[in-house]
Structures are given as structure tokens and as C-alpha cells.
Amino acid sequence: MTKSPIKLPAPVFDDPKHHLRLYQGDCLELLALIPESSVDLVFADPPYFLSNGGITCHAGRMVSVNKGDWDKSKGPDANHEFNRAWLAACQRVLKPNGSI
Prior knowledge:
Elements: E1 13-15, E2 20-22, H1 27-32, E3 39-41, E4 55-58, E5 61-64, H2 76-93, E6 94-99
Parallel strand pairs: 3-6
Antiparallel strand pairs: 1-2, 4-5
């Protein structure tokens, strides 16, 4: 008995007319489910590792810069490793003429 492949979750946005699908989740987990060389464009908004307890001014008010645990730095080496991993995963799924 062969194991059936794990399928992508339902997209949070789907526009079949324009061939657009948006997924929300852990990028490394989702990208692993996408076939190689099958994506035209990757639009990424990765963590910038700025959630460090700081504040900024927004619309004249002081607000927290904390976005959540996903945006907290785990140190320069771990940040670099994560960036290399998600970029490699994107490269794997991009078509030869794809863009990121």
C-alpha cells in the first residue's frame, strides 16, 4: 500500500481566473508540500526578527514592535540558517523562469 501524499491546506485566497492562490502557515511546512518547479512567483514577507521588546512611533503614538514569537530572533546563526532554508525551499518550487 502506497502512502498518499500530504495535500496543501485550503488556500486563504483563491482566484482561479488569474491563477492566484495564497496560503497562510509555516512557510517551510507549506513549501515542502508543493511540487518542484511548479510556482511562477513567490511573494514573501519573512520575519525580520525585530520583536525584541522595543517600541516605535505610529500615528503619533508609541506602540510595541513585537509581532509574536515567530518574529523573535534566535540569534544570528539561527536567523541565517532560517533565511537560507526558506530561500532554498522557494528556489526548489520556482519554475526556471520564476521570480521571488
